[in-house]
Structures are given as structure tokens and as C-alpha cells.
Amino acid sequence: MPLPGEKIISTAAEQAIRAQLIIPEQQELFDYWRSKCRDGRFPGRSDIQPAELKALLPCLSLLDIVDEGSLRLRVRLAGTRLRDYLGVEITGHYLDEYDLGDQSGYWDAAYREVIAAGRPAQGVVPLTPWRQPHIFQFWLRLPLVDAEGRIVMVLGHDAFLQSEKAHALASRANLRIA
Known about the structure:
Blueprint: H1 11-20, H2 24-35, E1 60-67, E2 72-78, H3 80-86, H4 104-115, E3 121-127, E4 132-145, E5 151-161, H5 164-172
Antiparallel strand pairs: 1-2, 1-5, 3-4, 4-5
């Protein structure tokens, strides 16, 4: 059985996750991330070039996996759009510093999917923990590996929509982890 970073993503799995992405920028990031996969391995941080993702930077995040067992993640970088919608600067902080209320289990499952299962994950959730339940967070999380192929970081993209269109998209979106 291959190590998590060595897992070869089947064409069907790629098509399934890609088909569930309803935000064009997330489709763009997924395609970019996938283009950086080599020899059946996920890309590393050094493969992701910010200059190639300029339009997406405000919505991107990079999370370091500090402790895989307890799922402790530190935000290495959070784009300005995250700060704008969450109302706090999360760069340099640990995710477990924030009270996510009844969404804690949801987010734990999402990150376990990426880290332990070694698969991209996506979904949509209202910003209830941030006191903005009328805004929906459409998120994508992608694994990044070290030189040995271990998943050590998570690349994220978050889009925030609050219009009637967001409500309609959220009702169509798969609310489960991909």
C-alpha cells in the first residue's frame, strides 16, 4: 500500500472532486494543484508558486500540520479575504484557538480526510461560528507533501458568498466532505 503522499489519484476520483467544485476559482486552484502532481505524488510547498496564483492569493491559506494525531494545525498564511470575513487575523495562530461550536466535528472530519486519508476535500458551510450565518463559506483543502512524501501542509481556498445565489448554490452543493 502506498504512503499517503505517494497515493495515485484515480481519474474517476479526480473527476468526482472536480465536478463538485462550483466556484470557478476553486476549479482553477484544483487544476493548478493537480498539474503540480508528479510521479503519483502530491505537490510540495515548493511546487506552489504564488506568482502563478496572483488572482487567488486573497482567498488562499497554508496550514502547517503540527501534530497529525491531535489534528493540530497552525495557519502559516491566510489571505486577506479570510481576515475580512472572519473578522480576525488568523495567520500565525492555531485552528484550535477558535471556538467553532457545532462545526468543530465537521472541520475535524474535513482535515482528517485531507491529512489521514490523503485526499482533497471540499464543502460549504455557513459562517455561524463567526456570527455571520447568512454568509456561506465554500472551501477547498488540498494536501501538500514533504520530500519523503508525507502530508505536512494543507493548501486551502475559501470563497464567501452572501447573496441569494449563495443560498441557491449552497442548497445544490454537496454538504459532505468529498
